[in-house]
């Protein structure tokens, strides 16, 4: 086997099988042993220091120190509190403090009131003191009368007893019983005095310790971990005052210091509001409401809450901010299902009803009126915009008079349940889809114009023109044959102009524009379009400038902050500025946590909505070349003018409907007029169309509509 082994080393000197020959022979090995290193002794003071540090930093030492400091502080703090209470009870200190607090808060009326109470207290105290001067004499007299009376009374009882028992010695029996009682009490006190003196101070100590413990009167580090953790702590007036004091607003801090313990006088009552509390704070003069609003995060942290759990709004009262503070973590709990899902008998009323959308932060139902209001919902991607917009449409669909034209420029099926319910449903993200959606919106503009021209008093069914992911339309680069862009925000941009027209004039004739858009910028959501919406809602957004785009400056200046919602965590929570919802007085917006209606539930609701209507065939593409009555259109463009040049008629026709007449030649016009018996004729050497001829032809023409044309 050994011949098969290939050595891996040049001259292997050892083999695993045979030990080397020299290893067998004993060899005397001399080796140099290094001197052991000289270990210098550590000086005593260093060792002592180290030991002291080890002992001082040992967890047990720290725990022991914490216990000692904690309980010592409880006693000291409790003594301070008890002494202060006693001092407050006997002096006018409380009144002085309240006067200072009221003055610091700028509330001079309250200051005067406290001053009056203080004066009354002093007068009463003075009277008591004056009474004391004459009291020893009265006390002595009273004692003499009392003793005499008692002895007299006991003697009378003794005489009655002696007569009854016929035993003269019984006269003093009651008196002797009193003497015995006094003797017993003296003996009792003598016996108990020692233990009382020994125990008394300890009882007093325990009393002040309990007061101090109750007030947590110890440094934070010395408190037990459970008391130290302020997470989820209920909000009390002193916590709010402390949080405000530590906001870093100089005048506020000074005013609160000045007020001392009376700082809570700045606060209104703390009331339970939904899953949190609400309190109004009247700020001292010199502190503005928006200074406090600007410190939301710090205030939240001072209250041991996350930023999104604290809302600061400005109510009607002057110099007042309203704080809403959520119970810790309460906003992360889901809200219940929508009544649209739970109540399958629910119907809607476009004019008078309100869509059940969710809950406000107070936990009250948040319902939105959609009557004659254009709508805009924005938010970052995947925050619940489509679901929120769809919830409104689902409710409104339960009013059978409502019609929908629907463009979903994402096209992944979020709106597919509206097939068979909406008049038009375009779904898809491409430029072709945008073209279709633009034509759909332009169709709504035509409908709006027809409605506007209808006789006064005509009522119109609500027509909701809904475009989800509208930013795709604004950003679309496609142009039509005349080089007019479908997207963009120029004067000739087709989507932009159509939306603008509906915004300007649609409301009164119930043609309403609803748009959902993502991550707004000036490019994908032009200013005029943002501001044309009456109801503006925003889910979580990236920045304050986006919040301003979404909701407008007024709402953001009033405290609306969708940019502070947490993307991902606050899905479905939106900030809303609208006259269609009840917003607490003085606030400019309201935060709504919307119900989540998933696709399946949405389908159930649309099935109900479809059952309310006669079958609707939904168009999924816009048909070009609508049927038009050419002769009637010619009469329309002639108006009141007796004769109009054929060239001008052509121009006016193509302005009326580009699709139908844009490609017409003079020959086309001539043919239609000749067919109707109203052929053009020459006037002053130029071809004209005569109004009377057209009118006569319209009157005479047969019912089969021979003048209709397809463009
Ligand atoms: N009210 C709600 N409550 C809780 N979660 C919700 C709510 N609404 C939506 N969500 C969650 O958010 C997800 C995204 O919702 P949705 O599709 O409406 O977002 P989006 O903002 O329209 O997104 P994109 O802009 O990307 O289309 C849903 O799948 C759901 O998980």
TrEMBL record:
PROSITE patterns: FTSK. Signal peptide: none annotated. GO terms for molecular function: ATP binding; DNA binding. The chain crosses the membrane at residues 143-164, 184-211. Coiled coil: none annotated. It holds the Pfam family FtsK_SpoIIIE. Residues 1-22 are annotated as: Disordered. ATP binds at residues 379-386. Keywords: ATP-binding, Membrane, Nucleotide-binding, Transmembrane, Transmembrane helix. Residues 358-548 form the FtsK domain. It comes from the Bacteria. The keyword Coiled coil does not apply. This is ATP-binding protein. It comes from Streptomyces genisteinicus.
